[in-house]
Amino acid sequence: MQLNIILSLTLFIVTNQCVLAKPTRLNKHCVDNLCISNLNYPTKKIQEKLANTKKYKELSGDILRLGSKPNGANPMLRFLEEPERNLCRTRTRKVYPKFVLGDDMEKRYVVNLKKFRQGIEFEQCVSETPEYATELMNIETKCVQQYTVIRFLVYNGATEELEYTEYPVPTTCLCMYKFKKT
User: Fold this and answer.
1) CB pairs under 8 A, 24+ apart, for 114-119?
2) What's the domain range around 55?
3) Sign of the C-alpha dihedral, residues 35, 37, 38, 44?
4) What is the pLDDT of residue 96?
5) Which pTM was predicted?
6) What are the start-end ranges of the E strands in 40-95?
7) C-alpha to C-alpha distance for 97 and 66, rounded to whole angstroms
8) What is the C-alpha separation between 100 and 36, in angstroms, rounded?
9) Can you list the positions of beta strands (E) in the chain?
10) Nearest to 86 by CA among 122, 123, 118, 58
11) Rounded to whole angstroms, how far apart are CA atoms 146 and 143?
12) CATH number of the domain enclosing 42
């Protein structure tokens, strides 16, 4: 009995540390805390709730999209400039998550159906090591995934209601530096 409690507690602690560490990958269908596939997705219950509540219909669409840098003062000369490169290798992702895990480890079903979509587009770090950074004396660099908090319309399985809840989602990848200790 006591051994089972100790094993369960150890497994719980290890699992929580793995899930809370960023970036995480819950399974092959997940990017961080956003998962695009779920076998137990309550499609019919969500469809019924949406049909009975018209106020959400116009809110469907992309929640977060990548922006672009404004052109300089003279866009005609822009092609002569050396192209800018990100120091970190990134991949652009666009996902329509089916569920999301919050900081409280509670799994919530994101409302994502044919007639109601919530999409997120972001840059994901491919590696922690900057690809184009040169070694500078006394400086360490690494690529760090950045996050922002956005609101999703989710289905709460416990209350069987639609609600807005905020979750951290990846946005971009930054090259960070710090001075080495000498």
Assistant:
1) 115/50, 115/60, 116/50, 116/56, 116/57, 116/60, 116/153, 117/60, 117/61, 117/62, 118/60, 118/61, 118/62, 118/63, 118/152, 118/153, 119/61, 119/62, 119/63, 119/64, 119/94, 119/95
2) 21-65+84-179
3) positive
4) 92
5) 0.68
6) 61-64, 90-95
7) 17
8) 9
9) 30-31, 34-35, 61-64, 90-95, 99-101, 107-110, 118-125, 139-156, 161-179
10) 123
11) 10
12) 2.10.90.10
Alpha-carbon span 133 to 144, nearest angstrom = 14
Q: How far apart are CA 92 and CA 105, in angstroms?
A: 26
Q: Position of tokens 């990548």?
A: 66
Query: 105: closest CA among 167, 153, 164, 151?
Result: 167
Instruction: Say if 8 falls within a structural domain.
Output: no
pLDDT digits (tens, 9 = 90+) for 5-21: 433 333 333 223 323 33
Mean pLDDT of the chain: 76
Say if 42 falls within a structural domain: yes
Amino acid present at 67: G
Side-chain-side CA neighbours of residue 145 (13 Å):
20
Q: Which two tokens stand for residue 100?
A: 């999301």
Instruction: Tell me, yes or no, whether 95 lies in a domain.
Output: yes
Q: Which amino acid is it at 166?
A: E
- The number of CA neighbours under 13 Å toward the Cβ of 55 is 5
